[in-house]
Amino acid sequence: MSSTEQVRPDVVAAIVTALEETDPSDLPPDATRAEKDAAKDQYLSSLVAGRAQRERQTRAWELLLTRSHDEPPSWRQLFDELPQSSVDQLGELYDALPEGAQAEYARRYGAPVSA
What we know:
This protein is mainly α. Helix content is 62%, strand content 0%. The model has no long low-confidence stretch (mean pLDDT 87).
């Protein structure tokens, strides 16, 4: 990219939206190579971030569901069954916990500083 070539954020956003929606009808016809590259980088970064968050959510559920239940357990019941090692790990995964689990964690231990 030359130093005089400007990347227009609205064009980049439009390209990212077209990629996310798999709909090329709104692609800006005057998008530059730099704008297309910036949009591709932004789109791929969001995919990687989304995958990482899903992996964190999966790990949180693995920690929460320590055994099978005949009836759906309450958040209180799930937390009552947790070993301390799982509680510590859930603190690190706080942002990936479902809302109810976050509330129960915060009620018992306080919200982690990083949350």
